[in-house]
Amino acid sequence: MFRNAAPATDVALPACAALSASRRDAPRDLSLRIHGDLIAVEAEWRGFEQVADCTVFQTFDWLAAWHRHIGLRAKVQPAIVVGRFAGGDTAFILPLGIAPHGLARRLCWLGQELCDYNAPLIARDFSEYVTAERFRDVWRELCRRLQQDPLFRHDWVELEKMPHTLGAQCNPFANLDVSLNASGAHVTQLAADWEKFYSAKRSSATRRRDRAKRRHMEEHGEIGFVTTEQAADDFYGPQAEVMNRIGRERGWGPTSRAHFDQSRGPNGALFVGNPEQVAEKIVAQHKIFNNDRFLLQMAIGTMPHAKIMKAIELYGTKVAPIVRKETAKAVPAITASVA
């Protein structure tokens, strides 16, 4: 991993990897736009991260959650830079921020201290059209524009923990005047079999200690990784079974996963996801309807009882407090209920 070693305006850019002559002869002009609000670029960001070379730490959900819980309290000003090719396609997104430090301000990555890797999101053909020298010009122009706007003005640049590569491409920031980070990271190849990888990387004594720790933790309940997609997978089967059974009785067609995913989207009737996503959807609908009560039906189809109980727990301990806080100034206030 790398960190910047000099102010952005003084960087030197050695080439990370040589590009073929044909690629160098096919330049694509770049335009820049700087956003001071994450929401303003949310749709483009979410779409781009699906096809860009990046790490999980550059996804919108990760950094939006970081900014909501940490960045706002630290008074970090987002500086989200979107670069586009001449045809309008997104070339890169830089999730930057201006962080106060005493009386000074530094330009850094959003969530820099918390993220394991800090980097841009770049189009998968980025390195085919943008050489190291061209990126140097873009970076210098960007820094000039940031300094022209009081909202983004800063006293120094501090870019930490940058990986050398993104996907199969060189990280364009690795071409700046950078040095190895004091806390370097190691790159390893993951095998398809986790158990073999785990056994190769951990001694038998360490594995025994890990198993003992897991047994102690399991005394307090089931252990597992829960993701938004897992929540959707868990709910889809019971939901589809009920809807298809009713559909056969009432004459409508079968439910597909595409229908289900559309219904759990921003404008759909299903509230499926992590607590923050569910709360945001409730609050968004409250802004439209100004409703004073929200009724959510959880027990449906063949959903396991334990999962329903866990969902009720999260609804009461995580979702409801967020909803109450966000609607506290609204009149009438919303009441979160469960049936």
Tell me what the structure shows.
This protein folds into three domains: 2-180, 3-Layer(aba) Sandwich (Aminopeptidase), CATH 3.40.630.30; 191-224, no CATH class; 228-338, no CATH class. The chain is built from eleven helices and twelve strands. The chain has helices at residues 21-24, 42-49, 60-71, 126-129, 132-148, 194-201, 204-218, 228-250, 257-263, 275-289, 305-326; strands at residues 2-4, 30-35, 77-85, 90-101, 104-109, 121-122, 156-157, 165-166, 169-170, 178-180, 293-296, 335-338. The strands form four sheets. Strands 2, 3, 4, 5, 6 and 7 form a six-stranded mixed β-sheet that branches. It has a two-stranded antiparallel sheet with strand order 1-10. A two-stranded antiparallel ribbon has the order 8-9. Helix 11 (305-326) links the parallel strand 11 (293-296) and strand 12 (335-338). Mean pLDDT is 85; it is low at 5-27.
Features of the shown structure:
339 residues, alpha+beta, Aminopeptidase, 3 domains, six-stranded mixed beta sheet, two-stranded antiparallel sheet, 11 helices
Short structural summary:
This protein is of the alpha+beta class. It has eleven helices and twelve strands. The protein has helices spanning 21-24, 42-49, 60-71, 126-129, 132-148, 194-201, 204-218, 228-250, 257-263, 275-289, 305-326, and strands spanning 2-4, 30-35, 77-85, 90-101, 104-109, 121-122, 156-157, 165-166, 169-170, 178-180, 293-296, 335-338.
